[in-house]
């Protein structure tokens, strides 16, 4: 995970994370080459426990293009690695 973004307190709750270095399984082989980064957005959440910059995650969801960025809303996810020093 490259970065996380928290919504301001006065904004609608959402939690965003940007992933790079994707090693995904896509139903369309051409899509794997086209997507190098993806933004994950959890609507209605201000934070997701365990998701911080540097965390490795596996995710699943429908990919949409929003403002030129591959985006998945409310993805299913699994934490598969944490940054060094975290338990």
SSE string, helices as H and strands as E: EEHEEEEE
The amount of helix comes to: under 10%
Question: What is the residue-mean pLDDT, rounded to a whole number?
Answer: 80
- The helix count comes to 1
Strand content: 35-45%
Structural shape? globular
Low-confidence parts lasting 5 or more residues at pLDDT below 50? Answer: none
Describe the largest sheet. Answer: 5 strands, mixed
Give me the count of strands. 7
What Rg do the Cα atoms give? 13 Å
Specify the structural class.
mainly beta
Q: Kindly, what is the distance between the CA atoms of the first and last residues, rounded to a whole number of angstroms?
A: 17 Å
- Oligomer, anyone? single chain
- Sheet with the most strands: spatial strand order: 1-2-3-6-5
What does this structure look like?
With 87 residues, the protein is mostly beta strands. It has one helix at 29-34; strands spanning 3-6, 14-20, 37-43, 56-60, 63-66, 69-73, 76-81. The strands form two sheets. Strands 1-2-3-6-5 form a five-stranded mixed sheet, with no helix packed on it. A two-stranded antiparallel ribbon has the order 4-7. The longest helix is centred in the middle third of the chain and has 6 residues, at 29-34. It starts with a strand and ends in a 6-residue tail after the last strand.
